[in-house]
Amino acid sequence: MSQDSIVGEVTGSCTAKGTGFSSPLFNSLMQPLGIISLKTDKVNGLTFKFTGDNLTAIGSSVLLYEDRKVEMLKKNSANIQMKGFMTLLPNALIKDKNPVNDDTRSGEIDYERDIAK
Length: 117
Prior knowledge:
Elements: E1 12-21, H1 23-30, E2 36-38, E3 43-52, E4 56-65, E5 70-75, E6 80-82, H2 84-93, E7 107-112
Antiparallel strand pairs: 1-3, 2-5, 3-4, 4-7, 5-6
């Protein structure tokens, strides 16, 4: 499918905010994608906002947490397994909480759709 074959262009935006939820809720969204599993029950909030169209989305996200520990996952055809070394790396590099000393870190959303899929 070529980009020219897309009929009409849809644009929009989304903003969402959640406060005080547990990691099983977060994991129910992320684990089926085979990305990450959060191993803490101290998620204090999640906010994201983005705008997009048929091909791209850009925006920002903030995850507020304490005592963070994650497991990076890989998705095989039948199941989801933990990545050993790739789990050690984020646990060593990412701060244990957000914010730290009133400095809240955020992440950028920058997604481009693969129209060949």
